[in-house]
Design goal:
Elements: H1 2-25, H2 29-39, E1 44-48, H3 50-60, E2 67-71, H4 78-87, H5 93-101, H6 106-113, H7 127-139, H8 142-152, E3 158-161, E4 168-173, E5 178-180, H9 182-188, E6 192-198, H10 206-214, E7 217-220, H11 225-233, H12 236-244, E8 249-252, H13 267-278, E9 284-288, H14 294-302, H15 312-320, E10 324-328, E11 331-336, E12 340-345, H16 347-363
Length: 364
């Protein structure tokens, strides 16, 4: 099994490399002009994980290629969880999604990297996860493997795991119950009174800290509050670096609460947790203002999720915190074969809002 996975991954890696080299040799002039414009864009650090961060990246890569995506590595479920347990590697799923999102042709690459085996010993594993496993085995280090994938696929920016240490998400509920691991945290998120990482002294990658030094703006979210955004901020050195940075920090709120994890929480409560983790209130919070169709709202309510809108009371509280509210129509409805009509952030609308903030901040 081990030899098969490694051999297949290495072979596919060479195929990818050959394909990218052929593409580069025939690039037209207009593509080079676009790349030149993108290379002059602002430097962005985007922090998160899961579907939320990859959705964000697909939008902002249209404006700049100076992007560093800092990705959480606490995932325990699915293929990532199995590879973490069986091979001792950091969970690759969120990293894979972000690499695909920043690729030149993200839709085609995503189909390849997201291909999931449906039988045999590889059942449940995605091809992208196995590629990252293979390159990790070849290089001996997960961060090196991610860097090699960044270069191999010529993505617009770079993707970095926030740390290469094996970390575990821990929490304590208001009733004093101690919970361990991402899955348990997700189930008890709305009851949490405290959250931390073990080991407590885990260090972020040096390149992650350097990216903050170079940043023109720092984006936090969107994504699962306690299992995608907050885990990155629980590394003390990273939180201190973010707190000390004087560039604008923007928290991008989810469209809906998540069953169990953030059930019953409003935008202010989301912002409170993020602010506590950094030790500083973000400069802006972006929330959706677009009405959600009734049929979708009702279906999400049946699952335990409700829309996250700002009201006048919340706006007043947020302004008193020293944070500016940005409300905009940033929602899209997508047809999913498995889930039907689902909500997602509109990548281009959200990116446009972010870059309006950046231009305004630069003008001031």
């Amino acid at each position: 099994m081990r030899m098969f996975v490694l051999g297949a991954g290495a072979t596919l890696l060479l195929l990818f490399m050959f394909g990218r080299l052929r593409l580069k040799s025939g690039r037209p002039v207009i593509e080079r002009a676009i790349n030149r414009r993108l290379s002059e864009g602002p430097y962005i650090v985007a922090v998160g994980g899961g579907t939320g961060l990859s959705t964000l990246l697909r939008g902002i890569k249209s404006f700049t290629r100076n992007i560093t995506a800092v990705v959480a590595v606490t995932d325990e479920g699915g293929s990532s969880g199995r590879l973490r347990n069986e091979w001792g590697m950091l969970p690759p799923g969120d990293v894979r999604n972000c690499i695909a999102a920043l690729a030149e042709n993200d839709s085609e690459l995503r189909k390849i990297l997201d291909f999931r085996f449906d039988r045999g010993e590889l059942k449940g594993h995605s091809l992208g996860n196995l590629l990252l496993l293979a390159v990790t085995e070849m290089s001996g280090d997960f961060s090196t493997a991610v860097e090699r994938m960044n270069h191999l696929l010529s993505i617009r920016g770079r993707v970095l795991p926030v740390t290469t240490e094996g970390i575990t998400l821990m929490g304590r509920t208001k009733d004093g119950l101690k919970v361990k691991g991402e899955l348990s945290i997700s189930e008890h998120g709305h009851e949490l009174n405290e959250i931390w990482l073990e080991p407590l002294n885990a260090k972020p990658l040096p390149d992650v800290l350097s990216a903050v030094d170079d940043a023109d703006v720092i984006l936090l979210g969107p994504g699962s509050l306690f299992t995608s955004v907050i885990p990155n901020l629980l590394l003390p050195d990273f939180a201190d670096k973010l707190k000390a940075s004087d560039v604008p920090k923007i928290y991008i709120c989810n469209l809906m609460t998540q069953p169990d994890e953030t059930a019953g929480m409003n935008v202010v409560q989301h912002l409170d947790w993020v602010s506590a983790a950094i030790g500083k209130v973000p400069d802006f919070v972006i929330a959706n203002s677009e009405p959600i169709p009734d049929d979708i709202t009702e279906r999400y309510r049946e699952e335990g999720a409700t829309p996250l809108y700002l009201d006048r009371h919340q706006r007043d509280i947020i302004r008193e915190m020293g944070c500016e509210c940005i409300e905009a129509p940033i929602m899209s409805v997508f047809e999913s074969k498995k889930e039907g009509r689902v909500l997602r952030h509109d990548t281009q609308k959200l990116a446009s809002v972010i870059f309006r903030i950046i231009r305004r901040f630069n003008e001031d």
